[in-house]
Specification:
alpha/beta; Rossmann fold; 6-stranded mixed beta sheet; 4-stranded antiparallel beta sheet; 9 helices; about 35% helix; ATP-binding; ABC_ATPase_HisP-typ; cell membrane; AAA+_ATPase; ABC_transporter-like_ATP-bd
Length: about 260
């Protein structure tokens, strides 16, 4: 029996007077691959950023392995945790973004090594060995000493994924990691994620690649206007959608 890795209870997030997340509830088992789909502005990326504490949230709870993320709740009083505690919790999740955010003056290997040396306090030799292992895993062993400017967009995104996974997170978050890539480079990045899914890595993916979500997910969540509108088995969701809103969304998506 898989154990619960992530639990989201009544998550609320506002930007000024605009409520972006309106009470999201979600549970994720260890080893699950969940794709989050929905129109732009439905709250998908905001939810990921709250899990990683890149965004503060105004209500609800996020628990990772039973531990409250970001805030302490004592009765009705809610208090933000210390920055040191939040940094420790943030290291439990790895995140890959639309933009690769690689340091241009560092090689692929040095980009992957940075967190291992600075955060995990590993020696440079230990960090280099781990970096080489993960660059090999994403098909870039021969590019370890190349700078980002010498790599294609797809290769840079694979370095960014290797950098996140090298930190050995409990949960990987992917935020539209193919949206900034030329169409011919999308496949190589999705192939890496498929391989990680096959290895049993726990992953939450915000994606607009519907065919990929259908093939790789153990579960799909459809978000609409800040709430989870429908969720379930990919085949049920894509072939027999229950809500009119999902039917409409799939008509305009790349799933066919």
């Amino acid at each position: 029996m898989s154990k619960i890795l992530l639990e989201i209870q009544g998550l609320r997030k506002q930007y000024g007077t605009v409520e972006v997340l309106k009470g999201v509830d979600c549970t994720m088992q260890e080893g699950e691959v969940i794709s989050i789909i929905g129109s732009s502005g439905s709250g998908k990326t905001t939810m990921l950023r709250c899990i990683n504490m890149l965004e503060e949230f105004q209500g609800g709870r996020i628990l990772l392995e039973g531990e409250d993320i970001g805030y302490e709740q004592s009765g009705t009083v809610r208090k933000r945790k210390s920055e040191k505690d939040i940094a420790r919790q943030r290291a439990l999740t790895g995140m890959a973004f639309q933009q690769f955010n690689l340091f241009p003056h560092m090689t692929a290997a040095e980009n992957v090594m940075l967190g291992l040396v600075k955060v995990k306090k590993l020696s440079r030799d230990e960090a280099r060995a781990i970096a080489e292992k993960w660059l090999d895993r994403v098909g870039l062993a021969s590019r370890a000493d190349h700078y980002p400017g010498q790599l294609s967009g797809g290769q840079q995104q694979r370095v960014a994924i290797a950098r996140a996974i090298a930190m050995n997170p409990r949960l990987m978050l992917f935020d539209e990691v193919t949206s900034a890539l030329d169409p011919e480079l999308v496949g190589e990045v999705l192939q890496v994620i498929k391989g990680l899914a096959a290895d049993g890595m726990s992953m939450l993916l915000v994606t607009h690649e519907m065919r990929f979500a259908y093939e790789v997910s153990s579960r799909v969540i459809f978000m609409n206007q800040g709430v989870i509108c429908e969720e379930g088995d990919p085949k049920e969701m894509f072939l027999r959608p229950k809500t009119e809103r999902l039917v409409e969304f799939l008509k305009t998506s790349s799933f066919n």
